[in-house]
Amino acid sequence: MVLISVTPIYAGLLALLFLWLSLRVVQGRFLHRVSVGDGDDKDMRKRMRVQANWAEYTPIALILLALCELQGTSGWVLHWAGLSLLAGRSLHAYGFGKTPQNVTLRRVGMILTVGTIAGLSLLTIWQATFQG
Question: Where do the domains of the chain lie, and which CATH numbers do they carry?
Answer without folding.
Answer: 7-130 (1.20.120.550)
